[in-house]
Amino acid sequence: MHILRVISPAWLILVLDSCNGINGFGYSKKEQHLWPQKYDVCAGKLQSPVAISTSKAIALPLPALEMVGYHDFLPTPQILMNNGKTVKLTTDKTAIHGRLPYIFGAILQRNQQYEMEELHFHWGIKNNRGAEHVLNGVRYPMEMHIVHRNMAYSNFSHALRHEDGVVVVATLFQLQDEDNELVRSLISELPDVQWAHTKLSVNISLALAFLIPSNTDIFYTYKGSLTTPPCSEVVTWIIFAVPVPLSFRQVNTFRKLSNGEEILGDNFRLLQDIGQRKIYIRRLDPSLWTKDIKRDDSRLKFANLSWFWS
């Protein structure tokens, strides 16, 4: 049974669903161990998130990640949703004109562009946890994912059927005393989606560049999966090495949200085995260049690098 209530003055849509969550999964250790029973790919060998070690990552002078439209305000209206698992921000594609932000470059195949689909957050109830990826033994209190679809595929469902279908750009957040003014416009809307399964049409003055570090020169990249069911193993991960600051007060605003039964938080997946996968780190250290190989050398076909140890 689905009940739809529309409160037009606030453009608020409240959806009460009788099922246990939108995708019927939970984040407790016991519930996560049950994911593969319903979504067998969740037991695959290319699962995310993983622990990242700078000393073990393979350093390469990869091309920059080109981010087109990241410094422009997102088209409006946007849709802000508490789906009971996370807070998600999307654009209303039926109501906007012009192109959404997109990315290319880095280790991605030449001539492939990936358009933003949505962004969402993972956070902890306590300050010592929340992010999904662990960097050099540190689990930050929050992680954000900007999900992009390969524009060669007509929609996100189609993209999930192809190994090059999705790129997720991830930001880690660290705590500070002062508010991050760049994200104030987004966080100020969160109380209006406090309750689970609440959607709000918003006009937030927000650029994706506000949600990523100013220094994007260094990033990690590897082949993995969605971190929620169906855990599709079609994701190229790009994780910035430099965290973005958020204040204690701003993170606590996320912790006031509800998942329908209790506080929404600790919505991060357990670490997965990296297995035979390689993790690359982009570095522009001149020592990475040999006297025989120059930056424009045709032998540097980064898009054809192996993602796995042989």
List keywords for this structure.
Carbonic Anhydrase II; 17 strands; 310 residues; single chain; two-stranded parallel sheet; disordered N terminus
Summarize the structure.
By secondary structure, the chain is mainly beta.
How are the SSEs ordered, and which strands pair?
Elements: E1 2-7, E2 12-17, H1 29-38, E3 51-52, E4 58-60, E5 65-68, E6 78-82, E7 87-91, E8 102-105, E9 114-123, E10 134-135, E11 142-150, H2 156-159, E12 166-176, H3 184-187, E13 198-202, E14 219-224, E15 235-240, E16 244-247, H4 248-254, E17 280-282
Parallel strand pairs: 3-10, 4-17, 12-15, 12-16
Antiparallel strand pairs: 1-2, 2-13, 5-8, 6-7, 6-13, 7-9, 8-9, 9-11, 11-12, 14-15, 14-17
> How many separate domains?
1
Element string (H = helix, E = strand): EEHEEEEEEEEEHEHEEEEHE
Point out poorly predicted stretches. 1-22, 295-299
Overall body shape: globular
Q: How much strand content do the residues show?
A: 25-35%
**Helix- and strand-based class?**
mainly beta
The CATH topology assignment is Carbonic Anhydrase II
Family: Belongs to the alpha-carbonic anhydrase family.
Domain Alpha-carbonic anhydrase: 23-283
Signal peptide: 1-21
Keywords: Signal
What does the model show?
This protein is mostly beta strands. The chain has a single domain, classed as Roll (Carbonic Anhydrase II), CATH 3.10.200.10. 8% of the residues lie in helices and 29% in strands. The protein has helices spanning 29-38, 156-159, 184-187, 248-254, and strands at 2-7, 12-17, 51-52, 58-60, 65-68, 78-82, 87-91, 102-105, 114-123, 134-135, 142-150, 166-176, 198-202, 219-224, 235-240, 244-247, 280-282. The strands form 2 sheets. It has a 15-stranded mixed sheet that branches. It has a two-stranded parallel sheet with strand order 3-10. A hairpin with a 4-residue loop joins β1 (2-7) and β2. The chain is globular, with a radius of gyration of 19 Å. Belongs to the alpha-carbonic anhydrase family. It comes from Temnothorax curvispinosus. Residues 1-21 form the signal peptide. Residues 23-283 form the Alpha-carbonic anhydrase domain. Keywords: Signal.
